[in-house]
Amino acid sequence: MIERAVYRRVERIENPAARKLAAGVARLVLENWFYALFFVLLWRFPYLVADLTDSEVMPQRPTGGSVFWQSVLAQTLLIACLAMSYNVLFGFGGIISFGHALFFGIGGYATFILMREYQPGVRWPVLVGFAALVVIIGALARIPWRRLALTALVGAALLYLLLPGSGGVSVYQGFGVAVLLSVALSLLSGAVTLRLRGVYFAMFTLALAEVFWVLAKSGTLRAFTGAEDGLPFRDLIPDALNPTPTADGNRLAMYRVTVIFFALVFLAIRRYINSPVGRVIVAVRDNEQRARAIGYNAFHYKLLTMVFAGVLATLSGLLFVLWGSAKRVDPTLLSLNYTVEPLLLTLIGGVGTLTGPVIAALGLELGRTYLREETFTLSTRLFGLLTLWQALWVAGFALFFYVFRRGLRRGVAQVLGAGRDPGSRAVTLAAGAGVVAVLIVVALVAQAIYAQTDLDAYVYKVADLWQLFQGVLFVLVVMLLPHGIVGTWNRWWFNRRVRHMAREAAARAAGTETAAPSGGHEA
């Protein structure tokens, strides 16, 4: 309704140039007002929390509600960036990878190992190795040699600039080298794994990530990686990248950098998906054989998507380790957890949606932090209405009837010999009421058994059961919302708009048919 009112006003503008400009501005505002409002909310978040908790945004000591939630929200946004990068692969590209954690953790290791161990004399050996890697990737990926030569020249020039001839490597140069390493690993792994299909592709990516995880925690390379203790870097980063100090504004500045990075990642993904390359990627996901028949090289487009998603994951991992309180890179960043978590966030939020992984990440990560100290018993009342075990019974009944509603209806109709006439429907409803009555009796018996037990003596902590809660939520979303939260909402809204447009078209058609005879009579 708001869109119609705005566009009607735009159409009344007589000047064509002004009308075109106003239409562009109106489209821009209507399509992005929610994102702009959300960005402003994130930007002002430290001050809002400070007002609610009566704390300081930049206190002398790193304590207080605002300081704590700056760190929590920043890390949550970076997890959301990781989930969005995985959604580019899985949701838009149809590439099921179990090795995405490799790109999330490799950036931190590459940066700080390079800063610790770099010697100026290794510049040329690195360039020679890079040239050999380019030849291998070109042979495996069958990239045209002219394009490959141009890519190799650009990469070699960047490496030459990033690796100094004398002195050490700065943290920013290390970040650049980490991004180039991410691109190289994406190309190399994609050139090998994209020739596989189905479970073989997923298992190969998992094996590749596990190799790096084992090397990172291995005692053989302890001098470089720190093994299970991790690689400390507190003395390697400048003060501007250390969010621990608060009085000088470093934490607030890093928080703002993280918010800007999150916005840039979101806009980059949206632009990539809406670009011609993104349209081809979606077409390849929907029907790869048809895309090939049209003339698109599906392999190269998938390879480009892997590089794009890998770079986003690497940059997210670099910022994530900077926010860590221990200031060290440990092998958990390369573990399967940082592949499974973005996969679950993508499925819960909505596969192939832009905002789905973000909503899932914000809801689960912030909820886990907010409820981590909460405890409950089975007699704890929810919203002052039902106790927890009663709510579980109600939810179980509702889920049972929702999932098996059609089977129950058919079973009762077959047992009673009910047909489709109204009397048979009444019998079916009566039988359904009988089933409900039986379940109520079972609930009352369970109440009596529950009253004789001492289950209320057990106190549960939310943090200890969070993985269970997340698993149950995932099962419920898959069963009740197979397209995820945002995906289901988009489908419902689209169907609602279609029905509304159909009703309007029918009303206009009816009005035209009514006006036609009267017009003929007047003539």
Could you please describe the fold and organization of this structure?
This protein is mainly alpha-helical. Helix 1 packs antiparallel against helix 2, helix 3 packs parallel to helix 10 and helix 3 (65-92) runs antiparallel to helix 13 (298-323). Strand 4 and strand 5 form a beta hairpin. Strands 1-2 form a two-stranded antiparallel ribbon. The protein has a two-stranded antiparallel ribbon with strand order 3-6. The chain has helices at 2-11, 16-53, 65-92, 101-117, 123-141, 145-162, 171-193, 199-217, 222-225, 250-274, 276-286, 288-294, 298-323, 337-349, 356-370, 388-403, 405-416, 422-451, 466-480, 484-522, and strands at residues 231-232, 328-329, 375-376, 381-382, 386-387, 460-461.
